UniProtKB/TrEMBL annotation:
The lineage of its organism: Eukaryota, Metazoa, Chordata, Craniata, Vertebrata. InterPro entries: EF-hand-dom_pair, EF_Hand_1_Ca_BS, EF_hand_dom, PPIase_dom_sf, PPIase_FKBP, PPIase_FKBP_dom. This is peptidylprolyl isomerase. Residues 1-35 form the signal peptide. Gene3D superfamilies: 3.10.50.40, EF-hand. One of its GO terms (cellular component) is endoplasmic reticulum.
Length: 232
């Protein structure tokens, strides 16, 4: 039988601090749905902030690497279909925000979230598993989902603006073979692992093979796939 979890009030300690329970409808939406009569109706992700740390920083943005626990429930009956604490030996889940590693509704719901923050989010079918559902995950078609999320860490993602700028020593907004070579040498020295003499050249060649799409001998911000390359 499915596990039913009753809705609970936030801890008394949180309420005593005067933190409001905010219901924030976001306007960042997927494809709209059509109501009767052909009217286009936007479906929203609703966010309820259960706990907000006094020092709420840094706040998550697209491309950040997040570490979080979350439980998933069906809105229809409250049954739990997912619990990150029962997977990976109970370790929180790591993923990059805003790039499709989780369902679109979670990508939206976890924007501007800080370490220590807890949220309860309601995600419509169009931003979850839609009309097809997800049988393997015990999610029926057209299911509205509820997630209770606790965020532990917000780190710079593997392809962040900061990472690009760290490699781009001369600041010309493109990465040369020399710059990437130097970065690899620094990283190899930092982790201290033993590698064959050919490892550096092989990794360098592979990086350019996979990323230098126009073959000009440089990796641009677009080729590097910086998530917020408009900042460059």
């Amino acid at each position: 039988a499915a596990e039913t979890v009753p809705r609970q009030r936030p801890p008394a300690s949180d309420m005593g601090r005067g933190l409001p329970l905010l219901l924030l409808p976001l306007a960042l939406l997927a494809a709209p749905t059509r109501a009767e009569g052909g009217t286009v109706v936007a479906e929203e992700v609703h966010i309820e902030v259960l706990h907000l740390p006094e020092a709420c920083s840094p706040k998550s943005k697209k491309g950040d690497l997040l570490n979080a626990h979350y439980d998933g429930f069906l809105a229809s009956d409250g049954s739990k279909f997912y619990c990150s604490r029962t997977q990976n030996e109970g370790h929180p889940k790591w993923f990059v925000l805003g790039v499709g590693q989780v369902i679109k509704g979670l990508d939206i719901a976890m924007m501007n979230m800080c370490p220590g923050e807890k949220r309860k989010v309601t995600i419509p079918p169009s931003l979850a598993y839609g009309q097809q559902g997800y049988a393997q995950g015990k999610i029926p078609p057209n299911a509205t989902l509820i997630f209770e999320i606790e965020l532990y860490a917000v780190n710079k993602g593997p392809r962040s603006v900061e990472a690009f700028n760290q490699i781009d020593k001369d600041g010309d907004k493109k990465l040369s073979e020399l710059e990437i070579s130097q970065y690899l040498k620094e990283e190899f020295a930092r982790d201290g692992k033993k590698r064959p003499p050919s490892a550096h050249d092989e990794v360098l060649a592979d990086i350019f093979k996979k990323n230098d799409h126009d073959g000009d001998g440089f990796i641009s911000a677009k080729e590097y796939n910086v998530y917020q390359h408009d900042e460059l």
